[in-house]
Amino acid sequence: MNYRERFFYAMDGKEVDRVPVGFWHHFFDENWTGINNIRAHIAYYEDLPLDFIKTMCDGFFEYPFSYKIEKASDWAKVRPLGKDSEYIRGQIERAKAVNDHFIAERACLYNVFVPFTVIRHTMGEEMVAAHLKENPEAVNEAMKVVAEDTITLIEGLMKEAGCDGLYLPLQGGEYNRFTAEQYEQIVAPFDKMIYDCANSYSQYNMSHLCAWAGDKNRLDLWKNVPVKAVNWAVFIEEMSLSEGREFFGGKTCVGGFDNRPQSILNTGTKEEIKAYTKKLIDDFGTTKGLILGADCSIPADINPDHIRWVIEATEEYSAEH
User: Fold this and answer.
1) Which helix (H) or strand (E) holds 48?
2) How far apart are CA 134 and CA 293, in angstroms?
3) Which residue pairs, CB below 8 angstroms and at least 24 apart, start in 27-36?
4) Domain boundaries along the sequence of the chain
């Protein structure tokens, strides 16, 4: 079974020759943008025999609003950047370059943030919260604009760059941010818009339920997220892979490893990492519908041998069973 077959079989919940593995990290400093970022992605995935490619949107976290936002009413003055903007073209070109290199042998996904995450990354926690309280209608108008550009981006990623699917992080579900009702009113309509667009192009999208600040989320908000595979923070949410399989209705589960620097993935010995990998599969109870990875992006300076040991352990597990 080759990489592509293994990935798609796992996404479909079918039997695989071994459990697939996927880890990724952000690229910093000189590798944050441009051709250096493309080269860094290619070097990382050429070095490690991971089962699929996940291209990061590093350098595009901040959305270049068409109007400078200083007061709450300014959000309503924002207009779409359009398909020829660097924000959209740069991401499509990055994805295409990485995909062209790998897609013959491995499935290729690209990271796309939903509108709430985009405005939070760009303007910061305090301003977004204050302006949502002062003038939610204006912020809503800006999120419509961001959603329009995000849909344009997705169209380019799928039609021009040739992505097999998208990796779609969700944020804003923390208990200390919104009530469930506020989330459903402010954030959820735009989540749905982006997911509906992604699903219109591919059935092989992944949802990432981000616990970026180390805070637990209201996972019930995302229980019925419309994708085949879900990746959540097993350690922060205190929900194991097997518990998640039941909670999310049998969707393919992605993760199992703590991504933080003190974790076994980053600090463990070869024996410890292999034993932990095999125990994850044992505890899950089946090799179907499972992709091993981390709660979120792993440290950029992790020893690549630690990733190889995980892959080797999945091969050994299959040979032993």
Assistant:
1) none
2) 40
3) 27/56, 27/58, 27/300, 28/58, 28/300, 31/58, 32/58, 32/59, 33/58, 33/59, 33/90, 34/59
4) 3-320
232's tokens:
């959540």
Separation CA 203–CA 60 (nearest Å): 25
pLDDT in tens, 245-279: 999 999 999 999 999 999 999 999 999 999 999 99
Cβ proximity of 291 and 227 under 8 Å: no
Strands 107-111 and 165-170: parallel
The conformation of residue 219, written as its DSSP 8-state character, comes to: G
Return the structure tokens found at 188: 């959820």
Which three-class secondary structure state does DSSP give residue 289? coil
Q: Identify the H or E element spanning 303.
A: none
**What class does CATH assign to 3-320?**
alpha beta
Phi and psi, residue 113, nearest 5°: -85, 150
Kindly report the average pLDDT of the chain as a whole number. 97
Residue 81 φ then ψ, to 5°: -75, -35
Structure tokens at 248: 């999310």
Determine the straight-line distance between the first and last CA of the chain, rounded to whole angstroms. 17
